[in-house]
């Protein structure tokens, strides 16, 4: 199933579409039968198949007429992975890592599909990065590889907007990865049963103003979702609602000659096979 988190007339809503169907059905929080936010349901360990089946009886929702929100707006952890596609590591001139390069984002960076990515006043070097997100549904520590994918409840797409000059100001990437409204997340959440295990073999693309700038598959990951869960849970307890933003393929703007950065008026699209298109305009910070 695919779930869409949205707002309509000031009310939070949740909609669902069955596998292979593009028609969404949903309810807002002021309507009888609203099951709660997707985030609340995931963190409570709810049976999403049961929730979705009930929502399919609700009225149709045209996603073009509502405001889409991130599938999870307040993750406990936003764990991001750098240099995790072999071709991307090569284009940066670095050796492929032997241990995952982990950095974090904060919820204040997140926006939904259709919302504006904001190029900050401080920089003109806002870059795009197409990424697959894995959402943790079952928490755990010291998770075995054989069990790792059982902890993933679903997947989504992400544009890890990166302010490159700030990313390079120190050996830590936190500042360049945490400007407000630079992390687009959506457009929908797809339950794990709808995709290949670990989201493997999915085509992943980025387009800027209709021109393809990244085009790869998730098979180029150095550390797949399974491996990332093992590495991360060795260090920390993963909790329901945490998200893993699993890295970007080659083709990023900073690696081009001349560099290609997002400008006000641009439209950036991230498309992942089986998930959909995450589309966001770009504006300048007021």
UniProtKB/TrEMBL annotation:
Record keyword Lyase present: yes
SUPFAM superfamilies with a match to the protein in the record: FAH
Record key words, sorted: Isomerase, Lyase, Metal-binding
Superkingdom of this protein's organism: Bacteria
Entry keyword annotation includes Metal-binding: yes
Enzyme Commission number(s): 4.1.1.68, 5.3.3.10
Fumarylacetoacetase-like C-terminal domain sequence ranges: 77-282
GO biological process terms held by the UniProt record: carboxylic acid metabolic process
GO terms of molecular function: 5-carboxymethyl-2-hydroxymuconate delta-isomerase activity; 5-oxopent-3-ene-1,2,5-tricarboxylate decarboxylase activity; metal ion binding
Database matches in InterPro entries: FAH, Fumarylacetoacetase-like_C, Fumarylacetoacetase_C_sf
Family the UniProt entry places it in: Belongs to the FAH family.
Protein name stated in the entry: Putative bifunctional enzyme with isomerase/decarboxylase activity
């Amino acid at each position: 199933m695919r779930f869409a988190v949205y707002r309509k007339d000031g009310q939070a809503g949740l909609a669902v579409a069955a596998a292979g169907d593009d028609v969404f059905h949903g309810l807002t929080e002021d309507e009888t039968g609203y099951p709660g936010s997707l985030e609340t349901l995931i963190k409570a360990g709810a049976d999403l198949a049961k929730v979705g089946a009930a929502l399919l009886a609700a009225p149709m929702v045209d996603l073009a007429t509502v405001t889409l929100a991130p599938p999870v707006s307040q993750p406990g952890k936003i764990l991001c992975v750098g240099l995790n596609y072999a071709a991307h590591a090569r284009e940066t001139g670095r050796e492929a890592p032997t241990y995952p390069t982990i950095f974090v984002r904060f919820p204040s960076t997140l926006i939904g599909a259709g919302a504006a990515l904001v190029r900050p006043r401080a920089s003109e070097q806002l870059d795009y990065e197409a990424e697959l997100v894995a959402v943790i549904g079952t928490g755990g520590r010291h998770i075995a590889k054989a069990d790792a994918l059982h902890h993933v409840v679903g997947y989504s797409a992400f544009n890890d907007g990166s302010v490159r000059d700030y990313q390079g100001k120190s050996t830590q990437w936190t500042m360049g990865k945490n400007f407000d409204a630079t992390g687009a997340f959506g457009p929908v959440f797809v339950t794990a049963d709808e995709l290949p295990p670990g989201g493997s073999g999915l085509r992943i693309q980025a387009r800027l103003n209709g021109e393809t700038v990244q085009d790869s598959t998730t098979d180029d990951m150095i550390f797949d979702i399974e491996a990332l869960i093992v590495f991360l849970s060795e260090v920390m307890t993963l909790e329901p609602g945490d998200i893993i933003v699993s890295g970007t393929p080659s083709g990023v703007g900073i690696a081009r000659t001349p560099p290609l950065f997002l400008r006000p008026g641009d439209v950036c699209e991230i498309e992942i096979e089986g998930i959909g298109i995450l589309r966001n305009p770009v504006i300048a910070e007021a």
